[in-house]
Amino acid sequence: MPHVILKRVWDYCTYNKPFFLLVLLLFGVLDYLQDSFADSSSIMMWMLYFIVTVPILGYGMTITRDRINKGVRLPKIITGDVIVLGIKSFIVFSAYLYVQGFILDLVCSPLDFPHFDLEEMLFDFSNTLNLLFSHNPIDALVFVVLGAVLFYITMFFTEIAIAMLADTNSFWNSFNLLEIKKNIDLVGWKHYTKDYTMIVLAIVIFGFFSYITIPIPILEYIWVTLIYLLMFVTQFMGIGRIYSEIKEKKSD
Predict the structure, then answer these.
(1) pLDDT digits (tens, 9 = 90+) for 25-63
(2) Alpha carbons 191 and 246: distance in angstroms, whole number
(3) 14 CB contacts (<8 Å, ≥6 apart)?
(4) CA distance 5 to 37
């Protein structure tokens, strides 16, 4: 259940509180720099955005690897691992999310819907309802059902690809679609769907806390950064946990 995941993430993050505060500080600085470059279209700004994004993704990958190996606390920051995994995961994420966007566009565009994104739809549920009711019922049903199916399938492949990269450090293993499907089959599509949904709900619950306003700007920024860090850790811990189950089934 989501509340179990929330507690697990909080315990994992706060196992070593001083280190957690250090990670929070670094995450806040990188997130600020990332936001500064996000809307830029120049090549130089894109390169700076890439440089900032790599360590964020790289540390997320070390969290995934740590959870695959049954870790109980935020992993140490090993610069070489973070940079290498960050670059590799940036490429893998970009490739899979591009394919996901292309596939979902085939469904969403003809129906005049935006891309299906489960987290965004749950975050802004009132807008989602307005969007659905503004279309005819058949189109809305096709969008929800087919969009959800394709979203889940593509996300499963993306997550297992990332987990395999974190576990083996092999870039090319991340694109072995047959092996990825075998891994998903091993844990079970139904089980994976339930597990992934619980993770998404936990991320959404964390996200709702970001709407709490604090009148002091610096405290407001720290609060929002804390929430985003918990959401970030939830995602990468979830990837590691499900792949840990897959490895256990393989060993059995």
Answers:
(1) 998 888 777 776 655 567 777 777 788 889 999 999 999
(2) 11
(3) 20
(4) 32
